[in-house]
Write a structure and sequence with these properties.
single chain; alpha+beta; seven-stranded mixed β-sheet; 16 strands
Length: 280
Amino acid sequence: MSTTHAVGLRIADVALTVSGPEYVTARLAAAWSSFVAPVEGLRIDVLQCGAANTMPRAPSALRDHDRLVLRDGALMELRLDLHAAHAHVRLWSHAADDRRSGLPMGLHNALSSLLATLLARAGGMLLHASSVQLTSGDAVLFLGPSGAGKSTIAAMFPRDAVLNDELVAVRPAGTSWRVHSTPLSGTLELLPLRTSAPLAAALVLEKAEDITASLLSPRDALRALLPAIALPQGDEEGEMTAFDFASRLVRERPFLRLRFSRDATAVRLGVERAVQEVGR
């Protein structure tokens, strides 16, 4: 019988306590070391199981008041009870590991789904976006569909300025907003540190030959922001809450259409200049 171990995580001010076999929690603590913290949060019990031959292979979600069941027959089953602040994750033994973190893919996906769900209810959003910190200390978001260049443009900035190149958290902080790094990175060689920065602006990307920036209306900004919100399919309550926060964000922070080229130096200067001008 395997011994159960626990590791505490703090991601975007969301506290999680992951409990499971030592080989799972040890890998988690090593892979996400910057986010390990001595906290007591929502408890997540992880269980390694055999192959799930009877589970549907396509991801699906079921919602019942404070309970959420997320199934992916190829990877895992997640059962979340928000009222009890408790979740169960069953991992299938045959599933592959995430190539970046080295974690079981099912655990990686379960934790990202949990973070998205908890953020939506605690006040905030998990976004498919990249983010960098400018020389002013403020952060910018880079938004756009797959292939728009979110990871490409993040890679044009110094590595220690990148909060994440794939998934970031955005939360209100009084009258301002903050961007929080997450361990859920895409192409970064090194996982981000646990940090946050005030949000100055969001830039909706479009590849071009030159660098230009133009202000978007709140309506156009919302159209660009909504597809970037990461939530388990079928979580209607989370979607409604996230929509409210997204509507508030586009009213309180400037959104720009940024057309950018492959010239990294020009892009960095263009982003800094665009944010400075819109902040005047």
